[in-house]
Each structure stands twice: as C-alpha cells, then as structure tokens.
Amino acid sequence: MKQCWKRMLALCLSALMMFSIAALAADEDDGQNETNGVTVTFAQQSAFTVEPADAFIQSNGTQKFDVQLSEGRQLDKISFGVKSSSITPEETITLDSATLKGEVEGISIEVDAWPERSRSFSLTVSAGAITGQFEASINCQSSQPKYSARIHEESGNAKVNGSEDSVPRGKEVSLGVVPEEGYRLSSLIIQYGDVKETLTAANTNWNGLNISWNPEDESTVSGELYAPLDVEAVVEEIPVVYTLTVDVDDGLELERPGSRVSSVSQGDTCEVRVDIRAGYVISDFTVHYGKSYASWASGQTYLTMGNDRVQVHEKSGEVWFVLPEMYDDTDIYFTADYDEDNIPIEIDEGSRINIDTNCGETVARGDDVEFYISTTSDRYSVQKITLTIGDNTGSADPEDGEVRVGRKNYEIEDLGDGEYVVYVDNVTEPVKLSATSSGSSSVSRPSLTINSSSHMKITKSVSSSRIDAGDDVTFYFTPDTNYQIDEITVKMGSNSRTVGADKTSIRVGSTTYQMSRNSNGVVSVYLTDIDENVTVSGRAYYSRDPVEATNTIRLNTSSRSAFMNGYSDGTFRPENNMTRAEAVVMLYRMCTINVDNDTSESVYRDVPWGMWCAQEVNAFARAGITDQTTYFYPDQYITRGELTELLYRLSGSPSVSSGATRFSDISGTSNSDSIRYASSAGWINGYPDGTFRPYAYIARSEVAAMMTRVLNRSSGGSGISYRDVPYTYWAYRYIQLASSYV
Fold this sequence. Notes:
Layout (H helix, E strand, L loop, with lengths): L1 H33 L2 E6 L5 E4 L2 E5 L3 E8 L4 E11 L2 E9 L5 E4 L2 E5 L8 E8 L5 E11 L2 E7 L5 E4 L2 E5 L3 E8 L3 E10 L2 E5 L5 E2 L2 E4 L6 E6 L4 E9 L3 E8 L3 E5 L4 E5 L4 E7 L3 E10 L2 E6 L4 E4 L2 E8 L2 E6 L6 E9 L4 E7 L3 E5 L4 E2 L5 E7 L4 E10 L2 E5 L5 E4 L2 E9 L2 E6 L6 E9 L8 E3 L5 E5 L12 E7 L3 E10 L2 E6 L4 E4 L2 E7 L5 E5 L6 E9 L10 E3 L24 H9 L2 E3 L20 H9 L17 H11 L21 H9 L19 H11 L21 H7 L4
Parallel strand pairs: 1-10, 11-20, 21-30, 31-40, 41-49
Antiparallel strand pairs: 1-3, 2-4, 4-9, 5-6, 5-10, 7-8, 8-9, 11-13, 12-14, 14-19, 15-16, 15-20, 17-18, 18-19, 21-23, 22-24, 24-29, 25-26, 25-30, 27-28, 28-29, 31-33, 32-34, 34-39, 35-36, 35-40, 37-38, 38-39, 42-43, 43-48, 44-45, 44-49, 46-47, 47-48, 50-51
Helix pairs in contact: 4-5, 6-7
C-alpha cells in the first residue's frame, strides 16, 4: 500500500513538471514573436553618411535610409548581406545602376534612383512576414573618379581657356572661347561621356551643361562635371557686308532686290530690276559706289563702273542689270518721266458708284478725257466728285458744275437721271477721278453707337446718330487728364475688332480703316463707306500721379556697365519696342540705391511679389520715380515721353525754363518739363518735321541712343556686333556702346 502511494505521488509530480515546462516554452515563443525582425546596420566609413545610421525593422515593416556621398565620389555598387542563426554563411546580393532592387530571405532592399549626377539617394529596406531574428548589413561602395575637361580650336583664330586634365567628379568647370577680331564662333562640337553633338547658338542648355553664346566675344560651356568633356570650337571669318540702297521715282516699282535697303556680302553680285508702271518711262539712273559715280540714260546698252562694263537690259515695262562684285556701299537712284504717249488715267469707284471714260488706261499728251459718273441704283445719288491731276487734288458737289484743281476749273455736266460727266482737257500729267454716293430716304441708315468707356471722351465727326449708307465718319478718343488710350474696339454689323491705340489701321471684317494718334494722345479712327451699324468703345490707363521724386534713387551717370543685351540667336532686334517693365529694370541696374526696398506688399495690383520685375518696379514707385497708381501695366510698351520722364526724375527733376523747347507737339503734355530738360541737355532728338512724338512707343535702338547720350558714352564697345545691326544702321554705334562695358 505504501509503495502504491509513492508511485502515484511520483506520477503527479512528473505531470506537474511537464505542464510547467510546456507553459514556459509557450511563454518563450510568445516573446520571440514580438521580436521577429531584422537589425539593419551600415558599414562605417568616411565615404558617405546615412540617416538613420541603423534601425530595427519588425516583421512586415519598412524603413527608409537617406544616404549622402562625400564630395567627389560616385556610387559604384551596394552590397546587402543577411544572416541569422539559420543562415550560415551570410547571404549577399549586389545592387548597381542596372539592378535597383533585390531580396534575401523575405527581406528586400530598393534604391529610389541611382545617383548618376548626384551625391544623394535613398534606400528602402522592407521585412516581409519573417520569423526569427535577422541581421542585415549594407555597404555603399564608391570611388573618386577624375575627368578631363578640354577645349580646343583648330584654325588658330580664337583663344581658348579653362582646360583641365584632372577634375574631381561634380566640380564646376568653365571652358571659354574668344574669337579674334574679324572672326566669330560658328558652332561647338561637344563630346560629353558617350554623347557627341554639334551645337549652335540655338542651344543654351545641353545634357546638363550651360552654353553661353556671344559669337564675337567670349562664349562658355560650364557646369558640374560627371564625365570626360571635350569641346571643339569652330570659328569662321565674319563676312564683310555692304549696304545696297535703291530708290525709285513715282511710277516705278522696285522688284529686285526685295527691299529699298538690303545687305550684300563682300564680293557678291546682285540683280537690280525695276518695273515701269503704265504712263511712265525710265529716263536715267545713277550709281554711287564708294567715292565713285556711274550713270546710265535710256537707250544705252551698258553701264561703266570703273573697270567693269555692266550690260543693261531695257524692255517694255522693265529695266534690269547685274551689279558686279560689291566692295563698297552702293546707292542707286532711278529717275522717271511721264510717257508722252501713255499718260496714265485712273479711276477709283466708291461704294455704289460706276465710272466710265472715253479712253483706255493711258492717253497721249494733249488729249482730252471724259469721265462718266453714275450710281448703281436710283436709290442713290452721286454725292462728291474728287479729281486729282499730277500732285493737285480738288473735290466738289456734282451740282456745283465745276471742280477746281490747282489753278484751273474743270466742267461737271449734269446729263440727267443722276449721271454726270467731268471734262479734263489737254492732259499733261496723270489723272485720277473718284466719287462717293449718298442714299435717298429708302436707303438704309446705319446707326452710330458710342459705348460708355471710362477715363476718356469719345466723339464723332457727325452730330446725328444715323448716317446714309456709304457715308464716312471719324471717331475721336480723347483721354482724361493723366490717362492714355490703351486700346479701341470697333464693331461693324456682326464683325468686331480690338487693337492697340498705337496702331495705324484697324481691320474689321474684310475692310481696313486708318487710325492715328496726335501729340495730345487723341486717337482718331477714320471709317469710310459705312453700310452697317457701328459701335465703338475704348480702354484707357492711368499714366501719371502727382508724386515727387525722393532722390533716394539716382541715375549713376559714371556707370561703365552694359545696360542692354542682345538675344541668344545673335540679334539685337533694334526695331522692337521696349515694355514699361523692361525699361524700369534696365534703369534700376544703372542707379545708386539709397532706399530700403520694403517687400511686405506690392505697390501695384498687376506686379505681385515674385514677378520677375517686382523688386525694381516697387523700388521706383516708393522713390517717386514712377507714379503710385493702382496698376503699372508692366507689359505695355513705354512711350518716348514716359522714358524721358523716368530719366528726368532719376536726375533729381531739375528746374527748366518753360521756353526751353524746340518741339511743336509737347505743349500741355504731362511730360513737357522732362522733355524740355532732356532737349536742353542734349539727350533727345526730334523728327525732321519739328515734333518729338511723346506718345509714340520707343524702339530698342532709340533707347540705346538716348541712354548713350545721357551717360555721355563715346568710346569702347568695338567688339560688340549683332547680325541684324549692320554697321550702316543709324544706331550701330549707340547699340555697341549700350551693349558693352566701356
């Protein structure tokens, strides 16, 4: 019995111990499940830094590591090794520029992008549903390559600089080429690593490199180096170009060359061809080349120019010859006379007008001509007859019975039924006749509507709000004080058109009408032969505010810096207009600034902070150089008067005599004081007719001329030229000085 009890007690103790061991084992498994994951460490070295330096990633977790290579290093490959108690030895994979992702035992590594031209990149390590403890090591293996950067030029007509044989990776390099005088850079043949290409001035950024073009001065290739760089500069001789000017009398038309003034390369020939209008003949022409002259008269078969004998072709309706090789500027002037046997007779039929003659398009000298004038319908009547003989013109109502032209009266006979005849006797000069019509009560009467437009007054040349179809009307747009007309809109029937106030014409539908703007800023629109309802409106902008300059920004007239630049295609574009923003930025760079340019808010609604010109525009406004109006209109072209006003204020707004002017069109204008001062200081020139045209937009060439006079520049700039500014161009020297450090 006692042995049985002992046996039962032993069995119970054994069962209890087995239960305790199983429970402990279960507890240990639970603890291990909580720490399933991978410990990631990076090989320690000075070649890179990493953030974070190490990390523990639990099962199904992810960690991103940001790596920064040391300066001058490139990433070659990444070794990723994983080990645990069950993985012996360590399993390793390698990543490179072609393999950005890999996995070992459910643990993956991925590079966001291989740093070809960067020292920064990111690694992401992800642990899948793993069981157990793992250790992962990452080693970023890098090298310190060095490259050559070389530039050369084979012809020997340029100087090159900046070549280096051993440039650390990522270091900034700059290779330059400067052509000798008389030569220019034509192209760059660049091999960068495995890529080779021929570049021209159209390229400014290529394969991570910046190309700065100045064909006749220094051009550069610059950027951080990530491969061997070899540049060959190709230069060419600048061709000598001469100016050919061909002028023709009335009655002649220049067919070749295609324009009155053209450029011809040295040694080239040029065909000159002139067409002769009916009623005219070429009497002669003269050729002025260099300091020599040659002449030709009708009937000659050749022209002698020095040692050259040039054949001249004269056929009915045209004369032509080939100008020999050019080595001087050349001027040619063709003179025409009336063809005594074929004096031209021209008619110009207005709307609903028929005009017939008793002759053809020409008559012999001394002949008489009759013009028969009628309307296309009995609903209309002939309103006005205009006769032009030679350079003289006269108009009359047909009921007047005669029209006076020059010192002579010509008869108008009423033939009845609305038909008239005009008699022109003894024709000795070209004759032209035109007529207009008016309608009866049954004819349509188009309406004239003026839409209300702010800051201007719009009036018309007739008092009625309706006119007879076919009549003419002129609309006048007069700006309020301190405003300028910006644009006008004309609607005729269903067709509408809006144009800038500086335009000389406006096309509505299929018809073009003339426009003009006078020295007081009044825009006139001349609408002729109206047969549909007309509506006009306009827009004006505030151009002046009574603000005094603070003298905290002054023009530095001793500055030697360039204040204008050309374009990347080698042009200057001298006839392009300058905008208001471009003018302010240009002047700001030439000024001494003694004012805190507060950036807390912008002065103008249309020049927000961050805009390319905001700093300069706001500084000028706060200094009283520009007027603090609601809007600045940065993209509006600046006028001659406005630019003169800016220069005047930047000079301290000096006093000037009210009589100090020689211009007929500035009295009463808002910029009259500044124009008077600029005239007395020799800054500005007017036009041959005695006007200054303050409301005309100013071209880049005119800006160059004005600023050069203001800064009193007279020397330097000889190395600057542009392909669209020949040395015969009127502002050639001004543009050189404006584009140079003098």
